[in-house]
Backbone:
């Protein structure tokens, strides 16, 4: 599900945020209805306005709820123990798992990226400054560490960071196309497991000077955390 590390279901504000994330995922900010959000949260619409004021402010809070949890989770992995290669593969795995387990997460950010492409995302500068920019910088620093130690083959850190993230994003954004081509839902557990292994192998090919060592590490990480539990 979408990152809800700061959501408590016994707290009306947090319950509203969870309901809002689901509504924004389905309809985007423009199509979302505050009365539907309040109804899904089981609260009076007046309480929504008490906590958030406007739908725009609620949408900003929903984005922050998703992105703050993701940033905290990913930075924790990248700052953890182990070599740069170990941490980068863990980061790639975590990024895939988050999108695999949450349709809402991918959908909300997908709606926002669509708006950003047409210059209609007032949230984009804040998202970049507070979340995407700092995370990208740490990913690049980790890649450069792997270069210095000789664990990684020659690479350009910024472009490699984009390639690693983009490979995950493309799979989920293009899910309807894949479903039409194959007649199968790309979120089926079997296909997710296959893609999860493939994305780590892709990361090994991009990163590691010693690919066999990288593949051994990737297999260890897959066995260490074998399951994904996508939301219905």
Residues:
């Amino acid at each position: 599900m979408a990152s809800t590390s700061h959501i408590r279901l016994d707290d009306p504000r947090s319950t509203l945020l969870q309901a809002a994330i689901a509504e924004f995922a389905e309809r985007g900010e423009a199509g979302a209805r505050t009365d539907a959000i309040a109804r899904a949260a089981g609260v009076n619409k007046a309480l929504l306005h008490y906590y958030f004021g406007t739908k725009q402010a609620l949408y900003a809070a929903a984005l922050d709820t998703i992105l703050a949890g993701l940033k905290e989770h990913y930075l924790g992995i990248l700052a953890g123990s182990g070599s740069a290669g170990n941490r980068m593969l863990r980061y790639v795995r975590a990024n895939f798992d988050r999108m695999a387990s949450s349709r809402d997460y991918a959908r909300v950010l997908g709606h926002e990226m669509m708006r950003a492409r047409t210059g209609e995302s007032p949230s984009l500068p804040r998202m970049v400054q507070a979340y995407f920019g700092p995370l990208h910088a740490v990913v690049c620093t980790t890649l450069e560490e792997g270069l210095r130690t000789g664990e990684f083959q020659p690479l350009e850190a910024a472009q490699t960071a984009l390639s690693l993230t983009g490979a995950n994003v493309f799979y989920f954004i293009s899910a309807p196309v894949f479903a039409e081509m194959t007649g199968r839902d790309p979120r089926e557990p079997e296909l997710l497991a296959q893609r999860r292994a493939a994305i780590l192998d892709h990361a090994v090919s991009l990163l590691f000077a010693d690919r066999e060592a990288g593949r051994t590490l990737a297999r260890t990480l897959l066995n260490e955390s074998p399951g994904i539990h996508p939301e219905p």
Observations:
- The chain is about 75% helix and 0% strand.
- Residues 1-9 have pLDDT under 50 and may be disordered.
- The longest helix spans residues 124-149.
